[in-house]
Structure formats: C-alpha cells, structure tokens
Design goal:
Blueprint: H1 3-20, H2 22-33, H3 37-61, H4 67-87, H5 91-119, H6 125-154, H7 156-177, H8 206-212, H9 216-237, H10 239-247, H11 254-275, H12 280-301, H13 305-333, H14 338-365, H15 372-400
Helix pairs in contact: 1-5, 1-6, 1-7, 2-3, 2-6, 3-5, 3-14, 4-5, 4-7, 5-6, 5-14, 6-7, 6-11, 6-13, 9-13, 9-14, 9-15, 11-13, 12-13, 12-15, 13-14, 14-15
Amino acid sequence: MPFALYVLALAVFAQGTSEFMLSGLIPDIAADMQVSIPAAGALTSAFAAGMVVGAPLMALLSRRWPRRRALLVFLVAFLLVHLVGAVTTSFGVLLATRVVAALANAGFLAVALATAAAMVAPDAKGRATSVLLGGTTLACIAGVPAGAVLGQEWGWRAAFWAVAAVSVPAVVALARSVPAGSASTAGPAGPAVSTGSGAGAAAPDARGELRALRRPRLLVALLLGALVNGATFCTFTYLAPLVTGVTGFGAAGVPVVLALFGLGSFAGVTAGGRLADRRPRPLLAVGGAALLVGWAVFALTAGNAVAAVVLVFVQGTLSFAVGSTLIAQVLYAATEAPTLGGGFATAALNVGAAAGPWLGGVALAAGFGYRAPLWVSALLVAAALTLGGAAEAVRVRRRAAGGSAGAPVAAP
C-alpha cells in the first residue's frame, strides 16, 4: 500500500477520535452544559447529520480541486472548529461546531476514499479501504479511551484540545506526502490527473456520476451500510452509561471498555480488508447473522461483567468487518462515479450514525433503560438482513428468468 495512504489514515485517526470520543464524554458534557444525557447524545447525531449533508455536497464542490488542496482545506477547517468547541460555554455553539466539523470531516473522508481507490490496483479497493478505516479503528483503541481519560482528569474540553493537537502533525504530513496532482481535476471534457490505476482517463461529469449512483446494486449497498452503521452507533453512543449503570463498572472502567471495542473494530477492519476483495458475500451473510445474534445476547447479558466485556469486543469486530466490507462494495459498484461514490458511501454510513443514536435516545427517553439501545441495534441489523435477503431473492429470480442482475451485494 502507498505511504500516502497511511498519512490519510493518520488524519482519519484524528477525525475518528473526535467523532467517537463523545461516547465516553456524554455524561460529563450533559452535567457541565446542564442538559439531559439524550440531549447530549444529540451531539453525535448532529455530527452524523453534518456528515450526511456534507459528504456528497463537499465531494461535488471539491471535485475539480487537486486532491491535496481539498484534503488540506477540510482538515484545517476541522482543526479550527475544535478550538472553538474547546472554549465555548454554550451548548448551542458546541452543537454548531459539531455540525461544521462534520462538514469538514465529510469532505475529507469523501475525497480520501476516492484518493485511496485511485492509489491502488482495481482489485485492491477492499484493502485500501481497510487501511484508511484503520485510522478510525485506532481512534477507537487509543484516541477514544485517551479522550475519556482526559475528560475524567481535566474535563471534557481537554479532549477537544487534544484532537486539535493531533490534527497538526496530520496536516504537516499530508502536505508533504500526498502528491499535489493526485486528483481528477479536469472538467467534463478534460483529462484527469490521478494516482494509481486509471491515470489519464477522462473524468466523468457530475451528472454522469449521479446517474451511475442509481444502480440497484449500489443503492442496496448504501442502505445496508446505513442500517449496520446505525446499529453500531446506537449502542456505541450510549456505551458509557450502559456499562456504568447496568454492567456495574465504575467510571474508570469506561476507557477500558471503549478500548476493547476499538480492538475489536481493528480486528474487524483487518479481516474485512483481507476478505472484501475475494469473498465479500460469505463475510456479509455470516457476519450479519452473527451480528444480530450478538446484539440480542448483549442485551440479555449486559448485567454480567464477563459477558459484557466479551461481547463489546465481538460486536466491535463484527460491526466493522461487515461495515468496511459494505464500503468496499460501494466503491466497486461506483467505478463510474469515482468522486461521488466515496461521498455517498460516507453519507450513507452517517445516515445510520445519525439515526442510530437518535433512535437509542428515543428508547432511553421512553424509560426502557440503558439496555434499550442494544435492542434497537438488533432491530436495525434485522432490517438489514431482511433487505439483503429480499435483494438476493430478486437476483435469484432474475437469474432464473434469464435476466442479468449484475453482482449484487449479499445480505449482511
């Protein structure tokens, strides 16, 4: 894998730390800002909503920029709004900074996914995606628990300062390592400048990319990604109150549990990267079924410390193995939409990341207790399995009728 891909993963690490660290800071933010825990959970939903809007929008706005310029603009903007978030005393301002940070993060990730796909051979998109998302999983392993520790020792604002500090070396490394011409910078009729395979090909215009995004195979992959990621974020957002209020861990155990989830997510991304290019269908089908069972078992055994620890790791592994494979499938299905494919993949995942915490918050506000997000996660994965099964049934019928169904995504 190209070295520049690991530089992009470093930036994704800083951004993933910011996105995920709230799961360990929500109780402190709620107390400091004098809002309820579900209201503080809206910070995660607001970030995800900004990612949903920002991913395709920023991808469109920056599609003619050199990719290094686009990546730097988005990353610097991300850094600056964290400085604002670290000093504000207004929950409304903090909420606004999360939206702006999400727009910058969305633009960065959309361009980074397109850049990663262009850096490698056509049959290596899964591995490239796993390296890029490795930054996210490392954020879960190191960044998020560190943010929780900082929040406990010096207050939640210290975690925001830390994200800004980590973003600085990422900016420097990106400026020095990503080629200036690594982009599809031409207009509809001009040549493309890209890194990796496909260099010199004509860059499709925005309308052509949008048309390519209507394909059933791609739409199914996007919907499945949204549902699976919704399940992941639904539980992850409320993991801290779950393990303290139900499992019985003290506040000091929260960073450990978050790190376990991160270790599982790293294992899942690694396994997904190795299998997504060769055997995606079995991984999605078996992994999806195991994911559903895991959320249900977690809900039933959350009061048992040993079971909770094991399932936090297992569910992190399954969630990211299935999720990263779905992202790779989107990139494979969006070969005629190299710029917007990454943007819509980012948007779909964050539709889930917005809806999941919101649904979990609704269940909590209704008085169903801290196990409720686990059941919501199980329902979301069940919906994904149903959708994937329906898509598979359509494929089988079309094949039996002699039609061409392409190579649809398997049920997760």
